[in-house]
Amino acid sequence: MVLNKFVCNVPRYLSYLPLRKLVHLSGVLFPLLAIYSGKDVAVGLIMFLIALFLFTELIKPKIRSHSFFSLLWRKNEYRSFAIEPLLYLFSILSLLLLSYRLDEGICYASIVVLAVGDGLGTIVGVHGKMCYVGSSKTLEGTAAGIIGATICSLPFAGTLSLAGAVAGMYVESRSDRHDNLTVPFAALLGMLVVQLLLNTYMSITA
Which one, 62, 81, 86, 192, has least CB within 10 Å? Predict the structure, then answer.
């Protein structure tokens, strides 16, 4: 049977840090902040958060015993640099800066794919039953990410949001590391390519 190909045969870690995922999902607020308070405010806030994060990493040896940080840091991040959160913040900053030059709706939608798509992908995925071949990631997680990201990014990019969600979650399903960087830029590229194809088609048929 076709479904047998998706039987989970890779050890899975059926847990995640709820507070960390809540922070991850909160990234969807940055496009709203950029729209209602201005891009400069959104860029300023994310730069402050990057500085705060780097300061926290600097003093990590002195604060890592505090129980609060066990809710945010993964086990491998207690004694080494937490690169994934930094990539998450860097991606949001980069997309906000790109919105000054590119279609801002597409840039904002890419942030949503990172925050909502990737976030829901984990939350739903850990309970999924159908894994990709040789992976612990699940089809249910990918589907939830695509649906959630598409719905939440529709106000920013319209129907292009589907292309961004599919591209971003496809890359997420294939990524082992650094998906906080690859997912949003895959979404950005997917939407830009589809937008270009649509504009080309319309110009030819006009």
Answer: 62
Q: Facing residues of 7 across strands?
A: 130
Give the integer Cα–Cα distance in Å for 183 and 124: 17
Confidence at residue 149, expressed as pLDDT on a 0 to 100 scale: 97
Rounded CA-CA distance 81/198 in Å is 43
As a whole number of Å, the end-to-end CA separation of the chain is: 47
Distance between CA atoms of residues 91 and 114, nearest Å:
9
C-alpha 146/C-alpha 187 separation (Å) is 11
Structure-token match 């082992």, residue found: 176
Entry pTM: 0.92
The identity of residue 199, as a single letter, is N
Q: State both tokens at 6.
A: 């998706």
What tokens does 11 get? 């050890």
Structure-token match 């399903």, residue found:
173
- Please work out, in degrees rounded to the nearest 5, the angle formed at the alpha carbon of residue 179 by the alpha carbons of 90 and 26: 60
3-state secondary structure of 22: helix
